[in-house]
Amino acid sequence: QVQLVESGGGLVQPGGSLRLSCAASGSIFEIYAMGWYRQAPGKQRELVASITRNDNSNYTDSVKGRFTISRDNAKNTVYLQLNSLKPEDTAVYYCNAEGGTAWSPVDYWGKGTVVIVST
Q: Please, which contacts does 99-105 make with residues 24 or more away whose CB atoms are closer than 8 Å?
């Protein structure tokens, strides 16, 4: 089993930056991909960025060029650098890990961290 703990959210002005962290513990060996999702008020949860075991990364179009996902294997931590923040980035950001096996994947979720972009 995998446990995920997010940190780094907060209130920031438009154009500002935040760095979100997701620390994983437990059965780290079973994780083959991790990502960041977000859910804004009244909207569906959406995948923001993902990174695989071989370091392939993908981003939703609205954050390309502004957000960067990375990982530190020694610390079992995945980061999301949020730059040039816009009010529409306001959401609860959730860390996700896919583990288990390729035939029977298991999703793990953190509790979320709130990002508010506002004056």
A: 99/2, 99/27, 99/30, 99/31, 99/32, 100/30, 101/30, 102/32
